[in-house]
Amino acid sequence: MPNRRAVFFISDRTGITAEALGNSLLTQFDGIDFKRTTIPFVDSPEAADRALAQIADAATTDGRRPIVISSIVDEALSLRVRQSNALVLDFFQIFIAPLEQEFGFKSSHAAGRSHGLRNSQEYFSRIEAINFTLAHDDGQSTKELHRAEVILVGVSRCGKTPTSLYLGLQCGIRCANFPLTPDDFGRGALPDSLLPYREKLFGLTIAPDRLRAIRQERRPDSQYASAEQCKSEVAAAERLMEAAAVPMLNTSTKSIEELATTILLQRRLDRHIF
């Protein structure tokens, strides 16, 4: 296949950093079918040789060299990988070397630092945020809403839960989320339990056709997933949020990362985890 390229994310730890950074780069290239493979825990010469064998097999099968995105810290193992028949993008070579030159001394070259928790306070912030978010998902509980840093509102299946979980897991933000329902639209008012926390509210909306596609997967051919219902609910929710001066963001074409970053910015919230 002419537009197919093998991509390997290689790391001496979990590979999450290589995947995240690498995928950010790959999204800039449309029209290529990337076959992605993650090889974690390349922390010995034997593991490196096994990875090199996979890369070589891909090069032979595809007839073109693979792309290797590496976050291996160990210099000897990193050099071994860079000698493969591939375009190797070594994040430590690209970024650490210039920083060492700027700072005037060598880095620690300690594997796993990017995923190490800086201190116990950061660890507990993450756990507390996740527990809070799970307890306050989809309006399950109104207890301790005063502790929420942000409360997401919107129609069912507009992206509230994944955004809330991302804010908790990646940012340490205590985020609750609440569905807006036909009952709220009939009353023309936000749920009473949310009224004391207007300054914490943030609305998510969505294109009706996108909402219909999502609901169709959950409850095929139901009234809940009908085009009429989706269009009606989205319009009513937007009117309700506009009347209550709740800031809104359309989730239809935005990634979870974009949504979370925009919410942090607009609500002037500080990340507790870096």
Which structural class do the helices and strands define? alpha/beta
Largest sheet: 4 strands, parallel
CATH topology-level fold name of the largest domain: Rossmann fold
User: Low-confidence spans: pLDDT under 50, at least 5 residues?
Assistant: none
Strand content: 5-15%
Order of helices and strands: EHEHEHEHHEHEHEHHEH
Explain what this protein looks like in three dimensions.
By secondary structure, the chain is α/β, with parallel strands linked by helices. It has 2 domains: 4-115, Rossmann fold (3-Layer(aba) Sandwich); 120-266, 3-Layer(aba) Sandwich (Rossmann fold). Helix content is 45%, strand content 15%. It contains 10 helices and 8 strands. It has helices spanning 16-26, 45-62, 75-82, 91-103, 120-135, 160-171, 182-187, 208-218, 227-243, 256-266, and strands at 4-10, 33-39, 67-70, 87-90, 150-154, 175-179, 201-205, 248-250. The strands form 2 sheets. A 4-stranded parallel sheet has the order 2-1-3-4, with helices on both faces. A 4-stranded parallel sheet has the order 6-5-7-8, with helices on both faces. Helix 3 links the parallel strand 3 (67-70) and strand 4 (87-90). The mean pLDDT is 90.
Summarize the structure.
The chain has 274 residues and is an alpha/beta fold. It is built from ten helices and eight strands. It has two domains: 4-115, Rossmann fold (3-Layer(aba) Sandwich), CATH 3.40.50; 120-266, 3-Layer(aba) Sandwich (Rossmann fold), CATH 3.40.50.
Secondary structure: elements and pairs:
Blueprint lengths: L3 E7 L5 H11 L6 E7 L5 H18 L4 E4 L4 H8 L4 E4 H13 L16 H16 L14 E5 L5 H12 L3 E5 L2 H6 L13 E5 L2 H11 L8 H17 L4 E3 L5 H11 L8
Parallel strand pairs: 1-2, 1-3, 3-4, 5-6, 5-7, 7-8
